[in-house]
């Protein structure tokens, strides 16, 4: 059944959204995200043809996320190479030879950093100086990344496949509906980056390391953030996917243990029993049904709260945020970072403007801009993200400053959207 994408008019110029349609498959993070705030899910994944040709709303990558991605990418390279070579332990002589061939931990780390930096999209929200700063900071953390990657690798256990390499049996692609690459039954041994799917549930997931022995099956997922109970829920979902995947696991073996590998330790839990898996299956069926309903709503539902909105990368597009969550600048202490919506009033200096309260038209804030901020246009309505409250004794006014990380969005004139 073909589904027509819905248009959603945000109040921001050039940001009319074509909302995403129901995905063929849900995965753990997408389900969590739509449950957290359906509007954030939809606006993040919508397309914005008037703004750019990229996928979703342009994001500003954080250094922490990029760093985590580098660790994950390097682990993928190294563990896949170990598995392909049939290594039985990261400390064994064959693993040492594999690492030498890869150029060592530092060389792998640097290559992955190069790759991730090259993949940063040319985005209307990521300016050249921000990109350069990001690059400098990331390259400055090579030694730290290398140490973390080595620690993860040293704690990884592998299982040799009976025939040496198990890679011919790994399943990093897919078959059946919706998958680009063929999937096959997984043979005994270790497998990196395995794609699992429960077709009836329309759920899929990619696990970092699957180990299949005669008497047990174990799943490991590398986690670069802080410990979170959600990581264990994700692993339980993987155990269910493995159980229901009729292609990769045709004999429907159960998983024995699940491991979340963190920078400093592994957290291992027993896998769910058969009856616990059936309960999980039924709860996930309800969750995917609810997620489908959310995505089909004419207007994506907003769930505003401090936790959701403070890190939301599409809050500039969300009218609910601006009417319910954005603070009154007069209630804030000096030095507070905040978001603001108002109207541009008279220019005060070469780089400063008065901002007016939208309803009363009274002067509310004196805004100092940066050398690269384009001139503000009097009478236009704007939203500002990440400005800092500052006192201005000279003008006896509440002032705010923009920095290189602040962002400004011009709103469409009423009736224009
Ligand atoms: S600002 Fe808050 S309510 Fe709006 S989309 Fe983001 S998380 Fe949801």
From TrEMBL:
Task: Tell whether Nucleotide-binding is among the UniProt keywords.
Answer: yes
The alphabetical list of record keywords is: ATP-binding, DNA damage, DNA repair, Helicase, Hydrolase, Nucleotide-binding
InterPro entries reported for this sequence: PDDEXK-like_dom_sf, PDDEXK_AddAB-type
Extract the ranges annotated as region (Disordered): 162-181
Q: Does the keyword Ribosomal protein apply?
A: no
Lineage: superkingdom: Bacteria
Which residues are in the PD-(D/E)XK endonuclease-like domain? 26-319
Cite the Pfam families for this sequence: PDDEXK_1 (PF12705)
Q: Where is the composition biased (Low complexity)?
A: 162-172
Q: Tell me which Gene Ontology terms the entry assigns under biological process.
A: DNA repair
Give this protein's Gene Ontology molecular function annotations.
helicase activity
State what protein this is by name.
PD-(D/E)XK nuclease family protein
């Amino acid at each position: 059944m073909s589904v027509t994408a819905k248009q959603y008019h945000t109040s921001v110029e050039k940001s009319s959204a074509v909302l995403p349609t129901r995905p063929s498959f849900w995965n753990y993070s997408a389900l969590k995200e739509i449950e957290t705030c359906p509007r954030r899910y939809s606006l993040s994944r919508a397309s914005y043809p008037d703004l750019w040709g990229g996928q979703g709303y342009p994001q500003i990558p954080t250094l922490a996320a990029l760093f985590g991605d580098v660790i994950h990418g390097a682990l993928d390279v190294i563990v896949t190479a170990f598995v392909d070579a049939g290594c039985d332990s990261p400390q064994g002589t064959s693993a040492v030879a594999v690492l030498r061939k890869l150029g060592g931990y530092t060389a792998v780390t640097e290559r992955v950093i190069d790759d991730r930096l090259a993949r940063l999209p040319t985005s209307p929200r990521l300016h050249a100086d921000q990109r350069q700063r990001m690059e400098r900071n990331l390259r400055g953390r090579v030694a730290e990344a290398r140490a973390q990657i080595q620690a993860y690798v040293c704690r990884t256990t592998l299982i040799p496949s009976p025939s040496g390499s198990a890679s011919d049996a790994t399943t990093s692609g897919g078959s059946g509906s919706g998958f680009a690459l063929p999937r096959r039954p997984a043979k005994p041994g270790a497998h990196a980056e395995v794609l699992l799917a429960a077709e009836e549930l329309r759920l899929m997931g990619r696990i970092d390391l699957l180990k299949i022995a005669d008497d047990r099956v174990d799943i490991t997922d590398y986690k670069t953030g802080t410990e979170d109970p959600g990581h264990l829920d994700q692993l339980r979902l993987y155990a269910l996917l493995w159980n229901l995947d009729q292609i990769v696991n045709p004999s429907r073996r159960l998983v024995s243990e699940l491991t979340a590998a963190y920078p400093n330790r592994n957290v291992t839990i027993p896998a769910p029993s058969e009856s616990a898996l059936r309960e999980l299956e039924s709860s996930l069926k309800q969750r995917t049904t609810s997620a489908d309903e959310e995505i089909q709503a004419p207007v994506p539902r907003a769930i505003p709260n401090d936790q959701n909105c403070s890190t939301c990368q599409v809050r500039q597009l969300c009218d609910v945020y601006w009417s319910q969550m954005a603070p009154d600048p007069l209630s804030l202490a000096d030095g507070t970072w905040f978001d603001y919506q108002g109207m541009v009033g008279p220019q005060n200096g070469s780089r400063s403007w008065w901002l007016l309260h939208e309803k009363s038209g009274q002067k509310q804030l004196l805004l100092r801009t940066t050398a690269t901020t384009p001139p503000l246009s009097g009478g236009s309505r704007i939203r500002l993200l990440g400005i800092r409250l500052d006192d201005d004794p000279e003008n006896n006014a509440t002032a705010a400053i923009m920095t290189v990380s602040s962002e400004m969005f011009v709103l469409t004139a009423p009736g224009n959207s």
